[in-house]
Amino acid sequence: MIKSPRGTRDLLPPDTALWNFVEAAVRDVFRAYNFHEIRTPIFESTELFARGVGEETDIVSKEMFTWEDRGRAESDRGQSLTLRPENTAGIVRAYIEHKLWERGLNKFFSIGPMFRRERPQKGRYRQFYQIDAEVIGPATAGSQSPVRDAEILELLATLLDRVGITKWTLELNSVGCPADRAKFNEALRQALAPVVGKMCADCQRRAVTNPLRVFDCKVPEDQPIISTLPTITQFLDEACRTHYEEVKQILNAVQIPYQENPRLVRGLDYYQKTTFEFTHGALGAQNAILGGGRYDGLSEALGGPAAPGIGFAIGEDRLVLSLTETASAESVLRKPDVYIAPLGAGMNREAARLARELRRHDLVVDLGDESFRIKKSFEAADKMGARYILIVGENEVAADAFALKHLASGEQVTVPRAELAQRILQK
Q: Which of 115, 279, 370, 410 is the Cys-Cys partner for 287 at CB 3.0 to 4.6 Å?
């Protein structure tokens, strides 16, 4: 039997009801904050991620699904393509390519699958789903303001509360500007020099190529060494320090709680200034639901105009996993309002007509078949959790009035056709 590839899975009903519930809440919240949906390709040029995410990140160096295009067109051949491992770079690429600043658009969101070749574990898959949002635009639009950072964080707190995840923790840090990080990286190299030989092979490589990435290490034996290293907060210049303080003051003003984490650097090279993660205890050791930060130089790195930005990515798989602590798919699944049971030859047509009429009133309707005995129809209605069963037989059609039975209470009444929808809606 052919099964789904390792690190992937099928999302099945009724669990998909929980996913739809989350995505509907996401769209409602984004609408309130004036974000607009954008849909980018699932695969992009590999160069986009190498330049945007960073060649020394684990994502680019280890985890991407990359292949060489063997298309028929000569212009396609030899082009390296990659299934998107994240979508910030893709959204910024679209922002540049389509000159979206000329349309006055600077707030975008997307929902869709991403791909990383990493070890599957609880809440982590090789095909996973992300909810991304980005605020990007010219400085004249206020996109570099600490107000934008705080607004994004307040949006996320609102969203998590809306879907029912209340025991979250916001971890906050500033990774400064490139000049700050250059000084910090040099300090890290000096601090790592006498101890790096005791660390894992990845950390030994990172200590040379990009010392900041040492903080991405998850090897337990390396953590005592990492805990002794300098922190970025010691190297922030005045502008970055002021920006960070203003973000915190706004969060205090809108009563969003946070914890400062000076070792939070995130796994992508394009971050500057504010970085953050929201964590939740239901996920165990790998407890991040979402994360993001400011990336003021990313547009320029991808060949675009100066366009300061800040954004985040929510791991939807992990968000839904956190939500199952307080909610179930059954609790958000909308079950049929009515099951229509046609009885006797020729009644399928009459039942179909009634179903069409009732669905126009936004009722959830399921249909039986005229070959079913009445007992089988009741069993089918009960199994799918319908609230009502509606009997459609020759006598009912002749009278244009139908037997409507409430399955939980057993109450049965005869209702004229014109009043059926209203009667079901009232209950």
A: 279
Mean pLDDT over the full length of the chain: 90
Residue 351 has, within 13 A of its CA and on its CB side, a CA count of 25
3-state secondary structure the chain: CCCCCCCCCCCCCCHHHHHHHHHHHHHHHHHHCCCEECCCCCEEEHHHHHHHHHCCCHHHHHHCCEEECCCCCCCCCCCEEEECCCCHHHHHHHHHHCCHHHHCCCEEEEEEEEECCCCCECCECCEEEEEEEEEECCHHHCCCCHHHHHHHHHHHHHHHHHHCCCCEEEEEEECCCHHHHHHHHHHHHHHHCCCHHHCCHHHHHHHHHCHHHHHHCCCHHHHHHHCCCCCHHHHCCHHHHHHHHHHHHHHHHCCCCCEECCCCCCCCCCCEEEEEEEEEHHHCCCCEEEEEEECCCHHHHCCCCCCCEEEEEEEHHHHHHHHCCCCCHHHHCCCCCEEEEECCCCHHHHHHHHHHHHHCCCCCEEECCCCCCHHHHHHHHHHCCCCEEEEECHHHHHHCEEEEEECCCCCEEEEEHHHHHHHHHHC
- Residue ranges and CATH numbers for the domains of the chain are 15-177+237-323 (3.30.930.10), 334-426 (3.40.50.800)
pLDDT at position 138: 87
- The one-letter code for the residue type at 210 is N
Model confidence at 285: pLDDT above 70? no
CA dihedral 339, 342, 343, 348 (to 10 degrees): -160
Residue 73 has pLDDT above 80, yes or no: no
Residues 6 or more apart in contact with residue 70 via CB below 8 angstroms: 76, 77
Give pTM, 2 decimals: 0.82
Residue 17 to residues 175, 287, 328, 329, 331, Cα–Cα distance (Å): 39, 24, 9, 6, 9
From the number of C-beta atoms within 10 Å of its C-beta (0-12, 13-18, 19+), residue 268 rates as: buried
Structure confidence by residue, pLDDT tens digits, 98-129: 999 999 889 999 999 999 998 888 778 999 99
Measured CA distances, 376 to 255, 349, 383 (Å): 56, 19, 10
Distance (Å, rounded) from C-alpha 296 to C-alpha 127? 29
Rounded Cα distance between 116 and 64, Å, is 5
Instruction: Write the pLDDT tens digit of every residue in 354-397.
Output: 999 999 999 999 999 999 999 999 999 999 999 999 999 999 99
